[in-house]
Specification:
heterodimer, A: alpha+beta, 4-stranded antiparallel beta sheet, 7 helices, 59% helix, globular, B: alpha+beta, Methane Monooxygenase Hydroxylase, Chain G, domain 1, Alpha-Beta Plaits, 2 domains, 8 helices
């Protein structure tokens, strides 16, 4: 496989999306549990379906890459990594399923997630926020607040936070991070004056 | 492979589940780093973490069984058991990444190219008794400012301390998991392995 071929770029891009989506799903699944949110849990289920499709596309790209014989182990490694991301996604979907089955979350669960190092918050973006009209890349939210945007809720839709995504007024940022960052994010997204 | 005998320990469900969640998240970071930098030592730590999570999963099951007193408890705790089971599955999946490294399969270098840009490495460092960091508190070593690295976890025998506090003392024999720039990791490794004892500045800073 030529290292800078179009094909290898495609493989890397798809792998990064598989990895990121599987980790996003874990975060969202725990958030769904904490907030007892069926919407979030359903989003996790939708992402799981998306992962299935993406995983197949990824495997096809890898298999089509015209690798040389000496590259075969590395190619096998790529395929195995893909399988791991899919298994993580399945496990996250199982966590979300608990919410969808209307099992009232045990108080223990709430304690676990709140006592974990990171908390999850919903923050509304108001019209006067400096974030409006900026892409996530330009917004520098992690640098400014220490919070990581897990997903953006826009109306009924949940959007995965890609760097090129523009923030709109009315968006709800679902973010996780250390508790100290919550207030900073709120000030940035909904300035009082 | 030798399996450990697991006995019931009176530990709150909350604590067990929290440990499982934190350790499985640590595993993900460690495993990808092991795969991308073909680091066999780190892969071994991932597998060690997986065994630790298995033990916790058993203990959690036992605790849940004892905790359920009526149908209502059972319904609520079934959810906890399901979540713990899923966390265990995540750790099993992630352990397969470590196996790729351990068995010498490796990952095609095209993927490494993109992650090398991230510059952050994770490495496993064993603390030698001769090292000047022995018996020092993490906070006083000032590692982030001095070398651009952080200690993200400590393995002490079978116990794991995830995100250790500043006042945690480093003991000889500790396995430290450090994250940071490659050059900082290299310097820290030499220090922890007792190969560099000339660092007077650090002595002073660490007091």
């Amino acid at each position: 496989m030529q290292q800078d071929s179009h094909r290898s770029f495609e493989i890397v891009e798809k792998f990064v999306e598989l990895k990121n989506t599987s980790e996003l799903m874990i975060d969202l699944a725990y958030s769904a549990l904490l907030l007892n949110s069926k919407e979030l849990a359903e989003e996790v289920q939708r992402l799981e379906e998306h992962m299935d499709k993406l995983h197949t596309e990824y495997e096809i790209s890898v298999l089509l890459s015209q690798f040389k014989e000496e590259e075969v182990k590395g190619i096998l490694g790529l395929i195995r990594l893909g399988i791991v991301t899919e298994e993580i996604a399945d496990a996250a979907a199982e966590i979300a399923e608990v919410v969808l089955r209307e099992i009232e979350p045990h108080p223990i669960m709430k304690l676990v997630i709140e006592e974990a190092d990171e908390t999850v918050t919903y923050t509304h973006v108001s019209e006067n926020s400096p974030l409006v009209g900026k892409t996530l890349r330009e917004a520098h939210i992690p640098e400014e607040t220490g919070m990581r945007v897990l997903a953006i809720k826009r109306g009924e839709k949940y959007i995965r936070p890609k760097p090129d995504l523009k923030i709109d007024a009315g968006d709800i940022l679902i973010a996780s991070g250390y508790a100290e960052g919550e207030e900073d994010l709120r000030k940035l997204a909904s300035p009082s004056s | 492979m030798k399996f450990e005998k697991i006995e019931y320990k009176p530990k709150p469900v909350r604590e067990l589940l929290l440990d499982m969640k934190n350790l499985s998240e640590l595993m993900i970071d460690l495993a990808y780093s092991a795969a991308l930098f073909n680091d066999k030592e780190l892969a071994e730590e991932v597998l060690e973490l997986e065994r630790r999570i298995d033990t916790l999963a058993y203990q959690l099951d036992m605790t849940i069984m004892i905790a359920a007193r009526d149908a209502e408890d059972a319904e609520a705790l079934a959810g906890v058991a399901k979540v713990a089971g899923a966390t265990d599955k995540i750790s099993d999946a992630v352990a397969d990444i470590a196996v790729i490294v351990k068995e010498g399969i490796g990952v095609h270098p095209i993927v490494m190219k993109i992650f090398e840009k991230a510059e952050e490495h994770i490495a496993r460092v064993k603390v030698n008794e001769k090292s000047i960091i022995v018996d020092k508190k993490i906070g006083r070593l000032n590692l982030a400012a001095r070398m651009g690295i952080n200690i993200i976890a400590i393995r002490r025998g079978k116990d794991w301390i995830v995100k250790p506090e500043d006042d945690e003392k480093i003991l000889h024999g500790d396995i430290l998991i450090a994250r940071g720039a490659a050059s900082g990791i290299k310097r820290f490794k030499e220090l922890a392995e007792g190969k560099n004892r000339e660092n007077g500045e650090l002595e002073n800073a660490a007091g």
